[in-house]
Amino acid sequence: MATLPVERRPLTLAERSYLPQIARGLKTTLKHIFSPNVTMEYPEVQPEIPAGYRGVPTLVTDPHGREKCVSCQLCEFVCPPKAIRITPGAVPEGSGREHIEKAPEEFKIDMLRCIYCGLCQEVCPEEAIFLQNQFSLNGLTREEMVHDKKRLYELGGSLPDRHFKWDKKKAAAEHGNAH
Amino acid sequence: MIQPANPDLVTVNIDGREIAVPKGTNVIEASRKLSIDIPHYCYHEKLSVAGNCRMCLIEMGMPAVDPATKAPIIDEATGKQKINWIPKPVIGCGTNVSPGMHIRTTTPMVKDARESVMEFLLVNHPLDCPICDQAGECKLQEQATGYGRGYSRYIEEKNVKPKRSVLGPHVTLDDERCILCSRCIRFSREIAKDDVLGFTDRGSYSTLTCFPGRELANNYSLNTVDICPVGALTSTDFRFKMRVWFLKQTNSICTESSVGTNTVVWSREGVIYRITPRQNDGVNDTWMTDSGRMLYKQVLAPERLKSAAVRGAAASAEDALRAAAELLRASEAGSIAIVGSGRSSVEEQFLTRKLAEALGGAPVSLVSRVGEGDGLLLSADRNPNLRGALVTGLIQSLPPVTASLAALGAAIDAGKVKTVISIGEDLTAAEAGLSAEQLAKVSLITLGTHASATSAAAAVVLPTLTVFEKSGTFVNQQFRIQKFAKAVPGPEGVGDDLATLSALIAAAKAGASASEADTPAAAASAASCDVHAVWATLAAEVPALGTMTYKTIPDDGLLLDGTPYAALPFAEGEALHYKPACAAETAAAPEGAESRAKAPAAA
Question: 4Fe-4S Mo/W bis-MGD-type domain: which residues (chain B) (predicted)?
Answer without folding.
Answer: 247-303
